[in-house]
């Protein structure tokens, strides 16, 4: 039977689990399931200033660090879910997103939601193989 284990790194934000009860990622059966990441720099608890592109870039830097801590890499991502607070930010989010992903691009869903944690405007989660 495959073992499930937590992936944790200080190279990505780690929130107080009493307020935010989730792991940065879980590895199971050759796959890594990353929790949603927002534009928070490691060691801080507030979103970075700037544009949705800037926060997209920071969220993807965080995901990169988490994947590497779990023995994977961004090139191994097979599925991405992106949450933005308005579809007006779709192009700006893509501008940051395409700095990290090359062809073949992973499967992706992007939806607009009413609100995201800490008042941010973009959150990204992903699934990758080892």
The CATH topology turns out to be: 60s Ribosomal Protein L30, Chain: A
Distance between the termini: 17 Å
Annotated CATH architecture? 2-Layer Sandwich
The CATH homologous superfamily? RutC-like
Shape: globular
H and E string: EEEHEHEE
Overall pLDDT confidence: 96
Give the strand tally.
Answer: 6
CATH class: Alpha Beta
Structural class: alpha+beta
Provide the helix percentage.
Answer: 10-25%
Domain tally: 1
- CA radius of gyration is 14 Å
As an assembly, this protein is single chain
Beta percentage is 25-35%
Main beta sheet, described? Answer: 6 strands, mixed
- Which regions have little confidence, pLDDT < 50, spanning 5+ residues? none
Strand order, largest beta sheet? 1-2-3-6-4-5
Q: Count the DSSP helices.
A: 2
Which terms summarize this structure?
single chain; alpha+beta; 6 strands; 60s Ribosomal Protein L30, Chain: A; 130 residues; six-stranded mixed β-sheet
Walk me through the structure.
GO terms for molecular function: deaminase activity. Belongs to the RutC family. The model has no long low-confidence stretch (mean pLDDT 96). The chain has one domain (4-129): 60s Ribosomal Protein L30, Chain: A (2-Layer Sandwich). 20% of the residues lie in helices and 28% in strands. It has two helices and six strands; from the N terminus they run E-E-E-H-E-H-E-E. It starts with a strand and ends with a strand.
